[in-house]
Amino acid sequence: MTGHEMLVDRYALRGTLGRGGMAEVRDGWDTRLNRPVAVKLLHPALGAMPDLRRRFEDEARSAARLSHQNIVVVFDFGVHEGSPFIVLERLPGQTLADLIAAGPMPPWRVRKMLDDVLAGLQVAHSAGILHRDIKPGNILVSAPGDCMKVADFGIAKTGDGAPTTTGQIVGTMSYLSPERLTGAPASVGDDLYAVGLMAYEALLGRRLFAQDNPAALARAIIDNPPPPVAAISAGTDPLLAAVIDRAMTRNPMQRFGSAAQMRAALAGDRTALFDLSAPGPGRPPPGTKMLTEPPVPAGTYLPPPRPRPRRGKGRVYAWAAAAVVALGVSAVAMAMDSPSSTAPPPQPVGTSTPVLPTTTVAPPPSPVVAPPAPPGQHDQGGRGHGKGDKKRG
Predict the structure, then answer these.
(1) First-to-last CA distance in the chain?
(2) Burial letters for 192-206: b for 16+ Cβ neighbours within 10 Å, e otherwise?
């Protein structure tokens, strides 16, 4: 379709705004309501593929159920000459990916972006919809006030079932969580992990995982956790850094349980920031004691707690995960974004290890010479000294 071709005798199609693996987005005009629109058209070659066509239709249904200022509005859906299309609100066309490519964003702007995206995801998750493809290219910038809007629910998963073939891992590989790469089912935590990763990249001013080779990319995501935010952006306030670090922590049980909790933590709610008992996928039942640290003084930065290492199984799991990824990389359904920079620098050695207080050990007591035992008695005073003591703590 080129030029000013009419779509279903209503939408005039003009220039191309963008192209993706499944569809292209065209600049359009609604001739009935006299307003600009964006028209998303499934590639003609994919229209005959039932799975992809159903996924495209599911995007329209999923997004149409959501009404929020931080979610791109769906106006219409239909089929023209056998090709399905979606009519969306027309935005200027700039994405978060464009902002990140321009260089590091100031912390205040990263905080606002996080709040906008989390507000949109809170509505989607409350409706039972997981996005599953959160990335900078799917966050659109609207003109008034730089409001961020979540777009592209093309691979969203609802309670009615996933629009994907069994065994496939869907999403953009650079923004999949480590557990998703190893085959774990999608969860709220995966969307929030991707949100944290976007914020990390916004502060960094480039892609974090930018390997060209899919196997190398998967290994980097699984085996090379990024350094804390404080190590890559010293000017970031501790609260924002702590929120991003916790969203990206390697242990999914230690991430935020919901978009609402992460948003509350971003607003300064210290309970939301440090509470690990919030209900969520993969979390223990309420009442399980997770935090044992004493209260933290106000203004002190405390990075998210790291998972306790498990002896024996950890190394086996790492090798098994790498093997699964090497064999299953070809099953990733969505094309990997083109890298915008070189691979991240090696992880610096952390300097935030707390200094333990010096413990003074008292000198051993002077030996006492026992008097000789009376005849007929055996000396048992030193037998087994230390061996019979019970091991403490």
Answers:
(1) 74
(2) bbbbbbbbbbbbbbb
Burial 27-56, CB ≥16 within 10 A → b, else e:
bbbbeeeeeebbbbbbbeebbeeeebbebb
Contact 336, 172 (CB under 8 A): yes
Residues in the chain, total: 393
Task: Confirm if 261 and 274 have CB atoms less than 8 A apart.
Answer: no
For residues 124 and 192, give the distance between their C-alpha atoms in angstroms, rounded to a whole number: 12
From the candidates 58, 116, 133, 245, give the one annotated as an active-site residue.
133
Is 133 designated active site?
A: yes
Instruction: Please report, rounded to a whole number, the percentage of residues in the chain having pLDDT higher than 90.
Output: 42
Which two three-digit tokens encode residue 127? 């409706």
C-alpha 128/C-alpha 158 separation (Å) is: 6
DSSP 159: T
Distances (CA, A) of 98 to 139, 201, 332, 340, 366: 10, 12, 25, 10, 74
Residue 144's pLDDT is 67
Kindly state the helix (H) or strand (E) to which residue 260 belongs, with its residue range.
helix 259-266
Per-residue pLDDT tens for 181-230?
Answer: 998 988 999 999 999 999 999 999 999 998 889 999 999 999 998 999 99
Q: What is the pTM of this model?
A: 0.67
Tens of pLDDT, residues 242-288: 999 999 998 999 999 999 999 999 999 999 999 887 544 444 334 33
Mean local confidence (pLDDT), 289-293: 29
For residue 261, give both structure tokens: 């909790």
